[in-house]
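Following up on my earlier thread - several people asked me to post the actual chain instead of describing it. Fair enough. Here it is, all 348 residues.
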Amino acid sequence: MKKFLFAAVLPLLNLLPAAASPGDTVIVKMKNKNKIIILTDKENDLKSLKGLSFDKIMMKLDSSLGNLDSSRNSDLDIELFKDKSGQKKFVRIGNSIRISEEKFDEDSMEENKMVEIMIRDGDTIRKEVIRRKGNKPKVSFFNINGEDEDVFQIDLGFNNYLEKGELPSDKGAAYGLLPFNSNIVNLRLQTMFAGEKNKTRFSASAGLEFSWHNYKFDQNVIIGKDSAAVRFDPFPSGQKKIKSKLTIAWLNVPLMLHYHAKKSSFHMAFGGFAGYRLGSHNKIKFSEDGVTKKEKEYTNFYLNSLQYGLRFQIGFYGLDFFASYNLNKLFSSGKGPELTPLSFGITL
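Reply from S.P.:
Thanks for posting it. Predicted structure:
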């Protein structure tokens, strides 16, 4: 029986358009005197039957029919019908086999289908499910918030800032940083709002990001403020510096344009971001009289409440490298040194 099904149904598909008319019963007789009967009320049903990928279905079916008793099914009825919603298509072959097919991702314009094969062998019913990819549909560039386009990302990297195009630490400035101890952590939820990542080369995304910037000072200084400006004061006598840093928390909104290579995993993105400062504090750790102590001060240090800048990413598969550059200064005008933040690292 299994050889009959696998070999006989495929030639049948080529006969359907020529042999059938609305309301017909099509009978295909085989050399071994077996026959297949197609029952249909509408011509469109036969066309839908032709559209089924029987090669893959029958390959699965061929491996599943070994235990069936072929003597019970010398004559096989094949019937096509749909459910009330019109989404599922069922093919019934005799009393033992039922094949159904449906689209399973219409909202994201996927043409993939799920094929379900149910085989009755006496009182036992076996069920197999196959997913197969159909023809790609025409893709509109604008695809509002597809479910599979929401991405959670983490940035891990390093912070620094420039003063008139130079690193302050290179000039021995009091606010110079330890380059590999000043770090950044970003937690970002990003969603595609134009294009589809796996179907178009270009897409656009927006997101919401929580960002923590740590600036660890190289010199023995503590950042503070007075009524006029930010200060970088030395540690008091008797205190030995262990660590001194400035921490800033931001809420950012990134907006990115993405490029995806057609035949590889290479991708890149370029865009910008704007953010609002959620909070800031300094933290010092020092040794005094042989005792290690920690202190924090929560204040704004005359930092700008808003930030905005540019961001660039490049990568393969799920690993990206990023770089960002602020277009405004870290401190308010006239309240501190003219420092322009920058950062770089990896995106997971």
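Residues 147-347 form a domain with the Lipocalin fold (CATH 2.40.128). That should answer part of your original question.
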